[in-house]
Amino acid sequence: MTNLFHSILDHIEYAILITDKDAKYVFVNKFVRDNTNTSLSDWAGKRIEDILAIGIYDKSYILDVMDKKQEVSGIIYTEKGYSSLSTCTPIFDHNGNIKYVVTVSVNPDRFNNLLEKATLASDINLVYKQEVEYLRNTLLSNSEFIFASDHMKKLFASILKFAPTDSTILITGETGSGKEVIAKTIHQNSKRKEGPFISICIPSIPSTLLESEIFGYEKGAFTGSNSMGKPGLVELANHGTLFLDELGDISIELQVKLLRLLDTLEVTRLGSIESKKLDIRIIAATNKDLYEMVNKKTFREDLLYRLSIIHLPIKPLRERPEDIIALSDHFIDIINKKYGYQKKLTQQSYRVLQSYSWPGNVRELRNVIERICIMSDNNTIMEEEIINVLGNYNKLIQNIPVDDSLKPKSIIDDFHNWEKDKVLDSLIKNNGNKTLAAKSLGISRSKLYRLLEKY
């Protein structure tokens, strides 16, 4: 029975720790051992103070349980900086004395699943539910929606206004501009936030399977289908939000079924004659001009109007340079935490990033920032390092001058023009004193002489 008991606990993907009446560890499951690179012998007989002293966890609620003789929950942090919800439960002997304390810690990645189960469990205590809700909001709410530009501020204000309604929303913008982030933010600020958010990327599903994946099918509906049938993604979004990404790639035939879904909020599986009533909100997104597609008869006009009750257009990143700085700082913060770095950008580096056209928008910015952070040998990332990376893409800068005679031919040309102006301006302000000019520019005299020779 002991072996069975240990085997069961080792197969649970939560951190489970058991201490005795003296607050000594008698068992930790495999999840804990694997994540702390320890063995059972490293824990056996150790007291709470011993574990806290070596920094595996920053705190424990076990002593609180022994003092209060009741279950206690709270937030702890691991040595790797991950937060977890820790619940410590006492086990009493026949005399009413604490014999063991069982600690269960849940990883943030499983909070959503926990919250769903918590709402169904009648015996979970109030503190536990409050902690889970707090962490869920902290980890999910607008965590990816980073902005500083007036355009995005107005867009966010619109989101807060429209999110509580059930109106369909059409989000348009270039590839990588953050349309799914907008959709998630709408969901998280709606009355459906406790329900599912189901995202369907239309081009990612083979056209021959798209209808059955979206609307589901009954058993035996077609050759090779699941013998038990299968609910579609539309059904899985019931009581939540259905996000249709890259909607411009959907076929005319499926547009008809989608229009019926919008009109009736009913779905009929393939091979069935019965309809199922749904409670869903639909958000769609595309990087294509649906109005032009309507003119070309490749997109239904009635479907377009039905989807775009509310239209949220997102400007490309090159047209909102203020967001480049905010997003760059956000991505660097993520990368620093991920790899244990202490990277940062100079003001000149921000200027270079703002000068680039970013054809891949936010997605490209994130990839470039990660690449630069990994490639750089220094904590301070200089402008030359960014130019070396961006220059390889050989993309023209589209967002600076309109006059072609003034327009730089590449990001390197633009940076050199800016650098030259900064050097000359500093020399003028310091009456030609090269020592003071170099100091005001934050560079050495030798580098200033190299720049003077260069220009």
UniProtKB/TrEMBL annotation:
Gene3D superfamilies in the record: 1.10.8.60, Homeodomain-like, P-loop containing nucleotide triphosphate hydrolases, PAS domain
Lineage: superkingdom: Bacteria
Signal sequence annotation: none
Keyword ATP-binding on entry: yes
Matches recorded under Pfam families: AAA_lid_14, HTH_8, Sigma54_activat
Keywords, alphabetical: ATP-binding, Nucleotide-binding, Transcription, Transcription regulation
Limits of the Sigma-54 factor interaction domain: 145-374
Record-linked InterPro entries: AAA+_ATPase, AAA_lid_NorR, Homeodomain-like_sf, HTH_Fis, P-loop_NTPase, PAS-like_dom_sf, Sigma_54_int, Sigma_54_int_dom_ATP-bd_1
PANTHER family in UniProt: TRANSCRIPTIONAL REGULATORY PROTEIN
This protein's name: Sigma 54-interacting transcriptional regulator
